[in-house]
């Protein structure tokens, strides 16, 4: 059991390498495919050396099957949902994590319970109501239903950040008669800036990636990019290279967020899991 | 909590209460309106016959929809598939994620690269993952997996068209996408464990397995339980990846309860029966999460 034995090191490197390959390879393969012609895609054995083409990207950006309007739809809905969510979740997370008031446990549990709801249970009533009021295929309808999964999630993530702020700072400010709202704004919020940023990233990412609500409640006008991916697949044929290019374009924002905010994402994931595990 | 001197405590407490209500009120009101009210409406609809294909038959049906499930083989099939899908994906994710985390912890360098690779599946939209696997990875003849099996002499398979293979495939897709979550959380948890406990155990000549069983496992149990809970919830409401890869098919080979409720409601337009299926799924989800939280508390 010594880490310096060469055989053991090689075995470990192999295991780690295969994990790496399994996770990264499908994405890299998709990236490669997006630069191929349809003919190169369907070559057997698969070609690794080929003349790269930008035709697929040209087509999905400027062509008849452009996904730019869909990227816009996704951006509008995800941004609106994120702003509304953060506006509501930051104060709620502070109250839930920091203040004392009656029925605190019950309200916390209620928020948690709403997070557990399977989306299919929500989409049926939303469909029926939005159909009646003409809310199908509108930004408003989609934004409101996105709150159902982003708001509980954001509140709980923020609670764990608010709990980390040292109590003394808050008390000192209150002793100075700073007032509760000013204390929250000038003393507490600067302390949880990082947590707010991480939460915002997560909420935006989840909204951007959402599919079930978008496919049912969207339409020809509001059609997020996750739904538009099906443009490239029909009964007759699948346009592999265009699908790959479209997917790369659609996923570029979240992949970039993932790589650059890597540390924060891991921390965000573990804050919920590790701290949640130790709390109650 | 020490109180400010010179002021009556009651006023301060009342002030805190009022402030909390003002901060929490809007969020709770929105949640009530956007989640609880629709659920009441869902429950109401589950008691109705509501078939958009045959609107003239609509009306109150009492518990008729729920009675119908008893004799609906597709319902029982979806229930069984939900159990298999959830159970196997959660076990696979935690097993693979924990093993990999334990191994990677011993690698002095290169953890960062692996962490970036692990982030990739997590940030991708499940629907894109499903489509990627359906085409680039699992398509007969041209998919990566088929290229490998053909090269190994195992022949070409219709990975998503054969009922049994299709179930295995959608389980593999879900496991591929979410094992990184378990891996990253457990790796971060393992990294925080105090090394001196291990030193003591090593001096006591405890074997690797004993060290894991009696030191590591109890220390990381809260994190493992939390991962299991979160992963179970995700698996129970899995939708987009299966929808994109198989659509629930072939036939109903990969139609977990979530997909059955969706297809009934929005493909067959039988919203009343779909609503009652959604109510069943919701009850299962809430019951499972309640049991798990109870379990978590009992273990402590």
Describe this structure in words.
The complex is a heterodimer of chains A (280) and B (300). Chain A has helices spanning 6-33, 38-41, 55-62, 68-98, 104-115, 119-133, 139-162, 167-175, 180-191, 193-209, 212-217, 225-228, 240-260, 262-279. Chain A is mainly alpha-helical. In chain A, helix 3 packs across helix 13 (240-260), helix 4 (68-98) runs parallel beside helix 7 and helix 7 (139-162) packs antiparallel against helix 10 (193-209). Chain A starts with 5 loop residues before the first helix and ends with a helix. Chain B is mainly α. Chain B folds into 2 domains: 9-60, no CATH class; 72-299, Orthogonal Bundle (MetI-like fold). In chain B, strands 1-2 form a two-stranded antiparallel ribbon. The longest helix of chain B is centred in the N-terminal third of the chain and has 38 residues, at 9-46. The chains are: A mainly alpha (280), B mainly alpha (300). At the A-B interface, helix 1, helix 4, helix 5, helix 6 and helix 7 of A face helix 1, helix 3, helix 4, helix 5 and helix 7 of B.
List the SSEs and their pairings:
The complex is a heterodimer of chains A (280) and B (300).
Chain A (H helix, E strand, L loop, with lengths): L5 H28 L4 H4 L13 H8 L5 H31 L5 H12 L3 H15 L5 H24 L4 H9 L4 H12 L1 H17 L2 H6 L7 H4 L11 H21 L1 H18 L1
Chain B lengths: L8 H38 L1 E2 L9 E2 L3 H7 L2 H32 L6 H13 L2 H12 L6 H8 L11 H29 L3 H9 L4 H29 L3 H6 L11 H10 L4 H29 L1
Antiparallel strand pairs in B: 1-2
């Amino acid at each position: 059991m010594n880490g310096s034995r060469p055989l053991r090191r090689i075995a470990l490197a192999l295991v780690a390498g295969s994990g790496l390959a399994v996770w990264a390879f499908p994405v890299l393969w998709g990236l490669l495919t997006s630069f191929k012609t349809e003919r190169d895609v369907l070559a057997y054995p698969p070609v690794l050396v080929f003349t790269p083409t930008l035709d697929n990207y040209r087509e999905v950006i400027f062509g008849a099957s452009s996904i730019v309007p869909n990227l816009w739809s996704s951006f509008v809905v995800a941004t609106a949902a994120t702003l509304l969510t953060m506006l509501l979740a930051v104060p709620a997370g502070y109250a839930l994590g920091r203040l004392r008031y009656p029925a605190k446990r019950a309200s916390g549990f209620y928020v948690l319970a709403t997070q557990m709801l399977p989306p299919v249970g929500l989409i049926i009533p939303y469909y029926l109501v939005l159909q009646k009021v003409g809310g199908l295929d509108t930004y408003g309808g989609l934004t409101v239903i996105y709150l159902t999964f982003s708001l509980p999630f954001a509140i709980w993530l923020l609670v764990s950040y608010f709990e980390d702020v040292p109590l003394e700072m808050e008390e000192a400010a209150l002793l100075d008669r700073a007032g509760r709202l000013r204390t929250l704004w000038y003393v507490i919020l600067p302390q949880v800036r990082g947590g707010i940023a991480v939460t915002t990233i997560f909420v935006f990412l989840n909204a951007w990636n959402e599919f079930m609500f978008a496919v049912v409640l969207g339409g020809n006008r509001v059609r997020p990019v996750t739904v538009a991916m099906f443009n490239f697949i029909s009964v007759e044929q699948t346009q592999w290279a265009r699908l790959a290019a479209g997917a790369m374009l659609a996923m570029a924002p979240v992949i970039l967020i993932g790589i650059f905010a890597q540390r924060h994402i891991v921390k965000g994931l573990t804050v919920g899991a590790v701290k949640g595990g130790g709390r109650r | 909590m020490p109180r400010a001197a010179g002021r009556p405590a009651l006023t301060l407490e009342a002030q805190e209460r009022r402030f909390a209500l003002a901060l929490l009120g809007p969020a709770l009101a929105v949640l009530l309106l956007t989640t609880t009210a629709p659920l009441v409406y869902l429950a109401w609809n589950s008691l109705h016959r509501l078939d958009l294909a045959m609107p003239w038959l609509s009306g109150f049906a009492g518990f008729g929809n729920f009675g119908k499930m008893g004799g609906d083989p597709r319902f029982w099939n979806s229930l069984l598939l939900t159990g298999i899908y959830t159970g196997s994906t959660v076990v696979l994710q935690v097993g693979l994620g924990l093993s990999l985390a334990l191994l990677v912890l011993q690698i002095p360098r290169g953890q960062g690269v692996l962490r970036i690779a692990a982030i990739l599946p997590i940030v991708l939209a499940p629907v894109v993952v499903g489509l990627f696997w359906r085409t680039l990875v699992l398509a007969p003849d041209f998919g990566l997996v088929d290229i490998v099996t053909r090269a190994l002499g195992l022949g070409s398979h219709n990975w998503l068209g054969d009922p049994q293979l299709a179930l295995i495939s959608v389980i593999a897709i879900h496991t591929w996408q979410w094992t990184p979550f378990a891996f990253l959380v457990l790796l971060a948890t393992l990294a925080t464990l105090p090394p001196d406990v291990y030193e003591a155990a090593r001096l006591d000549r405890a074997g690797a397995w004993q060290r894991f069983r009696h030191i590591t496992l109890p220390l990381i149990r809260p994190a493992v339980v939390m991962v299991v809970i979160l992963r179970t919830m995700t698996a129970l409401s899995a939708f987009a990846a299966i929808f994109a890869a198989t659509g629930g098919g072939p036939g109903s080979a990969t139609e977990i309860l979530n997909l059955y409720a969706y297809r009934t409601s929005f493909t067959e337009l039988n919203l009343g029966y779909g609503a009652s299926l959604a109510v069943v799924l919701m009850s299962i989800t809430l019951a499972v999460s309640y049991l798990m939280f109870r379990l978590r508390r009992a273990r402590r």
